[in-house]
Amino acid sequence: MADISKDQVKHVANLARLALTDEEVEKMAKQLGDIISYAELLNELDTDNVEPTTHVLDLKNVMRKDEPREWISKEDALKNAPDQKDGQFRVPSILE
């Protein structure tokens, strides 16, 4: 089992802005040590002939091809605008 000290747990809890009791720190140290021990089991696997992957699934882009097409004119886009100026939408200012 990988030993995680109580000081390490307190340090990580402080970084995460968590307030842990002494009992929680002790419990967390044991649980984190168990997790690391379990993950270390992967070191026992023979991965010499395994090709590295970036993702376990073969992902494909499912988006449509970006092709230029006709769109509405600027005048049509602005005809229902509640407020416009110089061919652009006018919106209330949010900065002072």
In words, what does this structure look like?
- Residues 73-96 are annotated as: Disordered.
- Belongs to the GatC family.
- It catalyses: L-glutamyl-tRNA(Gln) + L-glutamine + ATP + H2O = L-glutaminyl-tRNA(Gln) + L-glutamate + ADP + phosphate + H(+); L-aspartyl-tRNA(Asn) + L-glutamine + ATP + H2O = L-asparaginyl-tRNA(Asn) + L-glutamate + ADP + phosphate + 2 H(+).
- The protein is mainly alpha-helical.
- The protein has a domain at 6-44: Glu-tRNAGln amidotransferase C subunit, N-terminal domain (Histone, subunit A, Orthogonal Bundle).
- The chain contains 3 helices and 2 strands, in the order αααββ.
- It has helices spanning 6-15, 22-40, 74-78, and strands spanning 84-85, 88-89.
- The chain has a two-stranded antiparallel ribbon with strand order 1-2.
- α1 (6-15) crosses α2 (22-40).
- The radius of gyration is 29 Å and the shape is elongated.
- 1% of the residues are buried.
